[in-house]
Design a protein that fits this description.
Subcellular location: Endoplasmic reticulum membrane
Distance between the termini: 97 Å
Number of domains: 2
Oligomer: single chain
Protein name: Phosphatidylinositol-glycan biosynthesis class X protein
Keywords: Endoplasmic reticulum, Glycoprotein, GPI-anchor biosynthesis, Membrane, Transmembrane, Transmembrane helix
Radius of gyration: 24 Å
Transmembrane segments: 194-217
Helix content: 10-25%
Largest sheet: 6 strands, mixed
Order of helices and strands: HEEEEHEEEEEEEEEEH
Number of helices: 3
Organism: Oceanites oceanicus (Wilson's storm petrel)
Length: 223
């Protein structure tokens, strides 16, 4: 009965994850609502999510946004090949720091720009599906006032503030996602169009090269 009482006292957090906009360039919006009775005052709340190879965060864009205090996140690894196609890329771990919702004491939210990678051409469908799992909810408190029964230590090497001032202990909580996963639809080419694409590309290359050569011959100074 003690175990049942503890479980009843531990309220799951609720996580909502949305992909805004269309096409390759999207915004990932994450909302977290902690369980009833959980006090996160003075704590840092973050969402830890795994991005599959079909989607990535541009580290240069992220650095610019962080300088403007528009978002705060840690990328693992922090070196990302933004030009690599999906089939040559690897997974990416993102720790997204969340801001408190002024209208809800237990609610937090954050947004992060993400980008779809190019996929191999498909046989039939003109879209590839990228599955994005629901993130894990993490909390870091300086005074360690979290309930030991409801929260468990998480292996996260990052500071509570998101700045390089040393690491601290993060804790993970069980949560119930509004949706288990989000689906990103990325446009892809069709294999039967490959011959047409090659011909058009060759003709465009020849035409542009001819125009450049003609301009050089007409206006170039060969003396």
């Amino acid at each position: 009965s003690v175990i049942l009482d503890v479980r009843a006292a531990c309220q799951d957090a609720t996580v909502t994850q949305e992909l805004l906009k269309e096409g390759f360039h999207r915004d990932l919006l994450v909302k977290v609502e902690l369980g009833v009775g959980e006090d996160a005052g003075g704590c840092a709340v973050a969402a830890r999510t795994h991005l599959p190879p079909g989607i990535y965060v541009d580290p240069y864009e992220l650095a610019s946004l962080q300088q403007q205090n528009l978002t705060k996140a840690v990328l693992i690894p922090d070196v990302i090949d933004v030009e690599a196609p999906e089939y040559l890329a690897t997974d990416l771990l993102v720790l997204l720091y969340m801001e408190p919702d002024p209208w809800c004491s237990r609610c937090f939210r954050a947004a992060l720009p993400v980008h779809g990678r190019y996929h191999r051409p498909a046989e039939e469908s003109e879209e590839a599906l990228v599955i994005l799992k629901s993130p894990e909810v993490l909390v870091c408190c300086c005074d360690n006032h979290l309930s030991a029964e409801c929260w468990k230590p998480a292996e996260v090497e990052a500071s509570c503030s998101g700045k390089n001032i040393g690491t601290c202990q993060w804790y993970s909580v069980m949560h119930k996602p509004a949706y288990e996963e989000s689906i990103l639809q990325v446009p892809v080419g069709l294999r039967q169009h490959s011959s047409l694409v090659c011909v058009v590309t060759l003709l465009a290359t020849v035409l542009c090269s001819s125009l450049i050569l003609a301009a050089v011959c007409k206006y170039g100074d060969f003396s």
